[in-house]
Amino acid sequence: xxxxxxxxxxxxxxxxxxxxxxxxxxxxxxxxxxxxxxxxxxxxxxxxxxxxxxxxxxxxxxxxxxxxxxxxxxxxxxxxxxxxxxxxxxxxxxxxxxxxxxxxxxxxxxxxxxxxxxxxxxxxxxxxxxxxxxxxxxxxxxxxxxxxxxxxxxxxxxxxxxxxxxxxxxxxxxxxxxxxxxxxxxxxxxxxxxxxxxxxxxxxxxxxxxxxxxxxxxxxxxxxxxxxxxxxxxxxxxxxxxxxxxxxxxxxxxxxxxxxxxxxxxxxxxxxxxxxxxxxxxxxxxxxxxxxxxxxxxxxxxxxxxxxxxxxxxxxxxxxxxxxxxxxxxxxxxxxxxxxxxxxxxxxxxxxxxxxxxxxxxxxxxxxxxxxxxxxxxxxxxxxxxxxxxxxxxxxxxxxxxxxxxxxxxxxxxxxxxxxxxxxxxxxxxxxxxxxxxxxxxxxxxxxxxxxxxxxxxxxxxxxxxxxxxxxxxxxxxxxxxxxxxxxxxxxxxxxxxxxxxxxxxxxxxxxxxxxxxxxxxxxxxxxxxxxxxxxxxxxxxxxxxxxxxxxxxxx
Length: 556
What we know:
The chain is α/β, with parallel strands linked by helices and about 550 residues long. The chain folds into three domains: about 1-205 and about 380-395, 3-Layer(aba) Sandwich (Rossmann fold), CATH 3.40.50.2000; about 215-380, 3-Layer(aba) Sandwich (Rossmann fold); about 415-555, 3-Layer(aba) Sandwich (Rossmann fold), CATH 3.40.50.720. It has helices spanning about 10-25, 50-65, 80-90, 105-115, 160-170, 180-190, 215-220, 250-260, 290-295, 310-320, 330-335, 350-360, 365-380, 380-395, 415-440, 450-465, 480-490, 530-540; strands at about 1-10, 30-40, 45, 95, 120, 175-180, 200, 230-240, 265-270, 280, 300-305, 325, 340-345, 470-475, 495, 505-510, 520-525, 550. Strands 3-2-1-4-5-6-7 form a seven-stranded parallel beta sheet, sandwiched between helices. The protein has a six-stranded parallel beta sheet with strand order 10-9-8-11-12-13, sandwiched between helices. A five-stranded parallel beta sheet has the order 16-15-14-17-18, sandwiched between helices.
């Protein structure tokens, strides 16, 4: 069995969880690969995502992110070209998608499903079934249409319903969904998008040999902790993330000081401001062995998350024998057995959380239970065994059938152009245009029938040129250029643009054209203004209009 993992990262919370499963399967002798956008591990395979870098990320960062009120909204609208993704997946028996925002689109996952590959999607937050949010914050809009999103200002309220509708159409109904927590599984089962999917619960797995209670006293000595001094530890990928609850720690510490509780508090993770008094900041810790020693040295892990799935820091702490004082949020109660390996406080109640820190310090027997229970439930070996059983079941299960009939995708241009135009191109252009109207104010005007006609003819010209073996180029990465490239990326060799700010990824300066045989070039000028200047540049390169290049404005 050959398994392919996709994850935007091979580090951070979701990326670490995915990479650990990948490594565990490899160690058991499975043939597995891990493809990622942001590579940090030597055995990961980095995949460039030109579409997102060239188009969606700038649209997102310039518009949607600025409209977010609080926690950012995620985007799964664009990603790797569908055909490229399907080709990357060829030769594998199981495709396991993890957290793939800003890397792979829902249409991309759908394209892989259409090849007949069994699809497993491991959820690390709620984004797959919402209109964009990673955690809903108590909003139940995802059960309906995600209208009037409380996380966006009003000018962007059209975006979440579009994103939700996009997922309704393209999330494969025969994809098997894996969630690390029972809480997330129940939320997924209630959702409009995943209510009919098979959903399995497989908790994240942690290496019990790395995360253990050893060298506790040695590390406490290094931190200059007194024998009667309790060490409190708080950690998150981003300490400034309000969802992780760092804003409650000052109140907790104040309550402890009022009770004359002797302690030292430490925090690790990314932070822009060291703003909590009497907390020692340890920065980002990538060395797992060092992190394990910190957990072991601590008396209590503070976990004031307002929403969470099954956080790695909690499982790692338990394996190191350190109890957890947490808010009773999300999937945290899956792991924390009240009064056994930690305590759960009402969400937002700092005073109750502080009382629980004191109670935990008076129950030293919790430490041994933490370790023993976590080894049984959250070892990497247990997680790998569960994934192995699932994958083997998928391969051997005779009733595994495709519930989606093959659909016309962007890259599938049939010989019957009229049928393609009516059934696929027009629908996708309309969908994307509505999204772009929301995303970018400068594109907010209605597109006319003639403009649709130009776009359709552009697709045809680029396709035909590619079939003839031409080097196909789009000149201009503005409104039309980016849009056409989104629809024809599999036929286009590269793009050029006179603006240096647009020249990255697969887009180059016009001088790039001189490296190619001019008689084998086909260039589509996809700009509205300054066409004369562009044609002069091409003429100076010895290129002839009608032979080596055309202007989109002439396609009527």
